[in-house]
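Ticket #4471: structure export looks truncated?
Reporter: QA, pipeline team
Priority: medium

Steps to reproduce: submit the single chain below to the structure queue and open the exported record.
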Amino acid sequence: MKSKTLHYSGEKAAVSYDVRRCIHAAECVHGLPDVFDPGRKPWIDPDRAEAEQLLQVIMSCPTGALHLERSDDEQAEPTPERNIAAIEPNGPVYLRGDMEIVTRQGDVLLKDTRIALCRCGNSENKPLCDGQHTPTGFEDGGVLGGSDGAPARGAGGGVRVTAVPDGPLLFKGPLSVVGSDSREMRLEKGALCRCGASENKPFCDGSHVRVGFAGD
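Actual output as written to the record:
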């Protein structure tokens, strides 16, 4: 997993921007065009908005590429009460909540409240999405199929996502999987497809073996 983080400082707050995690969803540009202007250098100017305005727009960034660093004692970004995996049509899985991605050995690769997971199988920054679903023509409407997880019981806590080498993304913890049709499955564990070939998307059906998927 690659990272390249740039920092843009202002008088009351600073914004960090991870170039590797950005897939140009443009929520920031639409939300605060005076602050986030791709045609300007530097393209982020935190002083053009109040810290609360910055926080609200940055929290709309679905990938976690943007984060607010406040100079006061206020919490930079609250952790959502619910853990959600939203299936983007023809795109990634957007995680929101108390999330961490770990290796099979348990080493933490990333801990964040907003993460975009690749599900087309073509990202060069696996398990994160890098936007390759668009040029490679990945197609999936994001409607939920069957479930391979157990119903959640409303327990609190975070979600741990394990990147299985050459296999799926295993998750454990209270997670609401939401399809593009707004159908929701509340699960405590399961396996998400990341090879792009499952016939039971967004869940794994073992197709990674058939297609020879390779990914750390």
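Status: closed, not a bug. The export was complete when the record was re-opened. Leaving a note from the reviewer for reference: The first helix runs from residue 27 to 31.
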